[in-house]
Specification:
The complex is a heterodimer of chains A (200) and B (115).
Chain A (H helix, E strand, L loop, with lengths): L6 E4 L6 H7 L3 E4 L6 H14 L4 E4 L9 H13 L3 E12 L3 H18 L11 E4 H6 L9 H9 L6 E9 L2 H6 L3 H18 L1
Parallel strand pairs in A: 1-2, 4-6
Antiparallel strand pairs in A: 3-5, 4-5
Chain B lengths: L1 H19 L5 H19 L1 H11 L4 H41 L14
The chains are: A alpha/beta (200), B mainly alpha (115).
């Protein structure tokens, strides 16, 4: 299965990511300065909305997601009519997940459940489906890594309905180097705290 | 004394600067003017700060001034942090706008792709 309407956000990559993605058939949006994963996500979502997309699937570029899982998300959305379908590695499966990383992810899940009130099983999964309605309501303002929590936090207040779908996350040396670490999670906590302070 | 002259000149300059900036932000301008004026008084009459300190329960005038200085510095730091966040937000908006205006068109997909 291939999806022709692929959008790649090139967050000021220093390698040839943009050129290769364009050559492979994707529409490439390039940030002139590096802004972070959250900002890239919002840019891609805004573009998709401008192009009139009805369903938007976000997909991390570090090779940890499986293209086949997109069909699972689409299927779950069609059956449930949910506004957001979030991929969950803990409903699905993981390949090569180190135990320490598992613990960290589980802790993040507990934190997200507590702060958002959403009964999630996986908090920081980049593979998710947004309907047009959800995508136009959600605003990602956390440019760096806190965007995942920020997104889940908005679901309740915006009155959106989220369900989870089982997906597979493949851990490779590359994706592990790119993924969240313990040190990162502390800066995420600080970022979220600052965001809450500046909002109130 | 020479030090009083130097400090008064510096504080006087701050007072003048705050006065000139009054149109930009009234609150900051007035706050800075009050701080500078109190500073000049404290420099000219060092004993006054000590009596104020005593009244507030602080031993020495110099200590009181240092405590106030710490509070002011923290306020300035928070103010700068907010400014930085606002600036980051503007940069994000600009970079996003540029990205959305010039999407690299998708080149035709090579033949032989699965369908």
């Amino acid at each position: 299965m291939s999806y022709p309407d692929a959008v790649v956000v090139d967050d000021c990559s220093t390698d040839t990511t943009g050129v290769e993605a364009s050559a492979a058939g994707a529409t490439v949006l390039r940030h002139v300065v590096n802004l972070g994963a959250g900002a890239a996500l919002q840019t891609g979502i805004t573009y998709a909305l401008q192009q009139g997309a009805d369903l938007i699937v976000t997909f991390d570029a570090d090779g940890q997601h499986a293209v086949g899982d997109i069909a699972v998300l689409l299927d779950v959305q069609a059956r449930t009519g949910a506004d957001i379908v979030a991929g969950s590695r803990f409903l699905g499966k993981t390949v090569g997940l180190p135990p320490a990383r598992r613990l960290l992810l589980k802790a993040a899940v507990l934190f997200t459940r507590y702060t958002s009130g959403q009964n999630v099983t996986d908090a920081h999964n980049g593979l998710r489906l947004l309907t047009r309605k959800a995508a136009s309501k959600i605003r990602i303002t956390q440019n760096r890594m806190s965007h995942a929590s920020e997104l889940v936090d908005q679901i309740g207040p915006l009155g959106l309905c989220m369900v989870e779908a089982p997906v597979t996350i493949l851990y490779t040396e590359y994706s592990l180097a790119k993924g969240q670490r313990l040190s990162n999670s502390i800066s995420i906590l600080v970022e979220l705290l600052l965001a809450r302070l500046s909002r109130s | 004394m020479i030090i009083q002259f130097i400090l008064c000149a510096g504080l006087g300059f701050a007072l003048l600067y705050a006065w000139l900036q009054r149109r930009k932000s009234r609150v900051v301008s007035i706050g800075l003017m009050i701080v500078a004026a109190i500073g000049i008084l404290a420099v000219l009459a060092p004993d006054a700060s000590t009596s104020v300190a005593r009244a507030l329960g602080v031993g020495r005038g110099a200590d009181l001034i240092m405590y106030c200085w710490i509070v002011i510095t923290l306020l300035v730091a928070v103010n700068l942090q907010v400014k930085i966040l606002q600036m980051q937000h503007s940069i994000t908006v600009i970079a996003r706008e540029l990205a959305l205006r010039a999407p690299m068109p998708s080149s035709p997909v090579c033949t032989g792709s699965e369908h």
